[in-house]
Write a structure and sequence with these properties.
It comes from Gadus morhua. The protein has 505 residues and is α+β, with helices and mostly antiparallel strands. It is built from 18 helices and 13 strands. It has a single domain, classed as Cytochrome p450 (Orthogonal Bundle), CATH 1.10.630.10. Helix 8 packs antiparallel against helix 9 and helix 14 crosses helix 18.
Length: 505
């Protein structure tokens, strides 16, 4: 019995010591959070929801409720000025709408992408997602090596050669819209556009003919699931630890695995073709393989990096362009005078011809303005961030080194200090003779790490919109909302359901 009591005593003492250690660690952490507050509280910002979690509860609630978090950032920017802080635990993010600071930080390679954010894009709930691909690589040398290898797939000369594919895939969409117009059925435009942009990227980037306009594809569901998982993983640090989220987390993991397994199969087939001396296109898939080096035997790290870029280009090439086109159709339908002006230009440049040339795109200047104005109000990828390693002063506020700076083109595009009547859809803001926005419009980012595929995306968007305006009139089915769905990228929540009819030629 004495031994039992002695064991019980020492066991209880050990438990007490552990509890004291936990309490001391928690107290120490709270003191550190208080130190962070004191360090940054000279910077304006909204009241924290709680001492520890800061503004995280507000951001999680905005996401959970289906609202667009960037509208909250817009509200904070207008209330607190060109610099405001966001707290979450011991972390601080600085929202910046100062054009001079935007120019300084985004245009310089000395401010890297922040490791905290992109570490959460590396994998989703334990399954590798974007990894160290072209978008998510934080190491400048690693990024630069990939970018240099990828550049030839986006040269003007190569892009000119893609016009045939752009035309062919857009014609498939026109055929589908013709059927809907003839049968007087409603067109779910975002769904159709998602299919055609996926059809384009799989053909142009990876050499695969999937005919997705007329067929359902598991790719679309997988991409959407991954994007939703990405948002949850970024905005709620405890998402994966909540029991109720486990079914969704399982779906996200399976979606990631599906995309990477598909990429592995397509890469393997292309590498075999290269090794057999077959003539292969100098497309993105070929460049991805080149990024792994010229060795016969590639390492596991090489394989992972190739798959990282496969997933990156698949998602970036499909989702963003589809949403831009869907929002463009929404605004044209809401602004018939703009639609009429765009149609007149298309008629003047194209007449009745079906095959749009590269030179035709250069003459569709007003349509280009329409697409730019669409991205001002509805940037597909609304925000980006950089890490400032040393102290910096922005708009009169001293920002400590090691802080993450957030730049939001959605917020900038809707502020009246940058754009008069910002909620009015006015393509003439981007007229060639109009004053150019000064570092407050960056839907494709800025500087060396701006989007490699922006010219590709805008060529594709112009071809699709030109053909649509040439042949059809469209109007929105009444009763739809104009709400924006925030899934990391922005997309129209309603799906943009339209009535389609043939134009009187």
């Amino acid at each position: 019995m004495g031994a039992f009591y002695l064991f019980s005593y020492w066991f209880g003492f050990a438990i007490l010591c552990i509890l004291l250690l936990i309490a001391s660690a928690f107290l120490g952490y709270c003191l550190y959070v208080k130190y962070i507050h004191l360090k940054y509280d000279h910077i304006p910002g909204p009241p924290r929801d709680s001492f520890l979690f800061g503004h995280a509860p507000t951001m999680i609630e905005e996401t959970r409720s289906g609202r667009n978090l960037h509208d909250k950032f817009l509200q904070w920017s207008e209330m607190y000025g060109p610099v405001y802080r966001i707290n979450s635990l011991h972390m601080v993010i600085i929202g910046v709408t100062c054009p001079e600071a935007t120019k300084e930080i985004l245009m310089s390679p000395k401010y890297p992408k922040d490791k905290l954010l992109y570490a959460r894009l590396f994998n989703l709930f334990g399954v590798r997602f974007l990894g160290s691909g072209l978008v998510s690589a934080t190491n400048h040398e690693q990024w630069y090596k990939q970018r240099r290898i990828m550049d030839p797939a986006f040269s003007t000369l190569y892009l000119r050669g893609l016009m045939g594919t752009f035309n062919e895939r857009a014609e498939n969409l026109m055929d589908e819209l013709t059927k809907l117009a003839d049968s007087k059925k409603e067109a779910k435009m975002h769904q159709l556009l998602s299919r055609v942009t996926l059809d384009v990227i799989t053909k142009v980037a990876f050499g695969m003919d999937l005919d997705l306009v007329n067929n359902d594809s598991p790719f679309l569901k997988a991409i959407e699931t991954c994007l939703k998982g990405m948002v949850a993983n970024l905005r709620d640090l405890f998402f994966q630890y909540k029991q109720k989220n486990r079914p969704f987390i399982k779906e996200v993991r399976e979606a990631c695995q599906f995309l990477r397994t598909t990429g592995e199969d397509w890469i393997s087939k292309r590498r075999t073709a290269v090794q057999n001396g077959e003539d292969v296109p100098k497309d993105i898939l070929t460049q991805i393989i080149k990024s792994a080096g010229q060795e016969e035997e590639i390492t596991k790290e090489d394989e992972d990096l190739m798959l990282d870029n496969f997933v990156t280009f698949l998602i970036a090439g499909q989702e963003t362009t589809a949403s831009q086109l869907a929002f463009c159709i929404t605004e044209l339908a809401r602004n018939p005078d703009v639609m009429e002006k765009a149609q007149k230009e298309v008629d003047s440049v194209l007449g009745m011809k079906q095959e749009i040339s590269y030179d035709d795109l250069g003459e569709l200047t007003y349509l280009g303005q329409v697409l730019k104005e669409t991205l001002r109000l509805y940037p597909s990828a609304p925000g980006l961030s950089r890490e400032v390693s040393s102290d910096i002063t922005i708009a009169g506020y001293d920002i400590p080194g090691g802080t993450i700076q957030m730049f939001d083109t959605y917020v900038n595009g809707r502020m009246d200090k940058f754009f008069k009547d910002p909620l009015t859809f006015d393509p003439d803001r981007f007229h060639p003779d109009a004053t150019k926005p000064y570092y407050c419009y960056f839907p494709f980012a800025l500087g060396a790490r701006s989007c490699l595929g922006q010219k590709f995306a805008q060529m594709e968007a112009k071809v699709v919109m030109a053909k649509l305006l040439q042949r059809f009139d469209f109007s929105l089915v009444p009763g739809q909302s104009f709400d924006i769905l925030d899934t990391g990228t922005l997309r129209p929540k309603s799906g943009v359901v339209c009535n389609i009819k043939h134009r009187d030629q």
